[in-house]
Amino acid sequence: MKNFWVRTASATVYAVLFLGSIYASQLLGNKLVGGLIFTAFLLFVTCGCTFEFFRIVGKQGAVPCKWLGYVYAVAALLSLSGLVLNQEIGGFRLFGIAMTLLPICFALAAIIQLWNHSEQPFRDAAYTMVPMLYVAMPLGLMPLLHESYNVLVMLIIMVWVNDSAAYMGGSWWGKHKMWPRHSPGKTWEGTAIGVLVTLALAYFVGPLFNDHIAWYHWLVLGLICSVVDTLGDLVESMLKRSVGLKDSGNIMPGHGGFLDRFDSLLVIIPFAFVYLTLFVQP
Question: Quick check: 181 pLDDT over 90?
Fold first, then answer.
């Protein structure tokens, strides 16, 4: 019972901080200040996830260039956030420029390995890049959805509901393990229940959050959130299990670290952003 209340308290603090940063513009009546607060929160999460990732791969014997990894991650997040905070800098052209810089970023990471005497220099150069690609760029897409507050919040709620429904469904009816090698607790029954509940939520509640998005688009977004949520969680579990860890950190008592809390969103947001951009946005 004590653990239940600890988990509940830490989850409440997390939800308040996350949603509060998203709605800061409306709460303060200042778009710029609100955008800066949201970006600051994402910057904090990015640095936390980067720290945990480097700690995990360090247990594998990897020696990435950590300072360069932090620079890349912070620069990627701030560049994408700048598309919203400073529209006159060229819009999506900045994103295109960032894509062309990726080969240069990897080349610099590889060149630095010449002085590190690493046994696997290309692996370590690749690990230097991972926080930027896996953490910062997905989180950096969130401010691009920041103007559609309710859409972003609904995506987050669908992820939370899917996790809760899958957990409870698996606890009550789960019999067939889904992927025991990477996540022994996940079952096909729990996953199916999570998908059905999330689709129902998307259909009935999604239009209440944004009635400009048709119900069938909400269903697709619900499917993305439920299916990709599970896969994103399995990817992070695969990373942790490779070094024998249960949690990526302990920033949230009872819930784990930054990566444990944001693993699904790191994979979902790019899929949802692309779908919204290609098929929903005018």
Answer: no
Q: What is the rounded average pLDDT for all residues in the chain?
A: 85
Residue type (1 letter), 122: F
pLDDT number for residue 272: 93
Quickly tell me which residue has 């480097």 as its tokens.
54
Note the Cα 240 to chain centre separation in Å: 16
C-alpha separations of 121 from 49, 50, 186, 239, 245 in Å:
23, 19, 35, 20, 24
- The residues, ordered by sequence, that sit 6+ positions from 181 with a Cβ below 8 Å of its Cβ are 241
Is the separation of the CB atoms in 77 and 46 below 8 Å? yes
pLDDT of 70 > 90? The answer is: yes
At 179, the amino acid letter reads W
Report the distance separating Cα 95 and Cα 76, nearest Å.
Answer: 9
Half-sphere exposure of 31 (CA within 13 A, CB side): 9
- Provide the phi-psi class of 244: left if phi over 0, else alpha when psi is between -120 and 50, else beta: left
Sign for the CA dihedral angle at 252, 256, 258, 264 comes to negative
Reported as a pLDDT band with limits 50, 70 and 90, residue 94 is low
User: For residue range 1-56, what is the model confidence (pLDDT) as tens digits?
Assistant: 456 566 677 778 888 999 999 999 888 988 888 888 999 999 999 999 999 999 99
Nearest to 256 by CA among 264, 265, 247: 247
pLDDT of residue 197: 96
pTM for this entry: 0.89
CB 83 within 8 A of CB 144: yes
Element (H, E) at 3: helix 2-22
| Cα dist from 102 to 74, 235, 245, 271, whole Å | 14, 23, 31, 20
Token pair belonging to 276: 């919204």
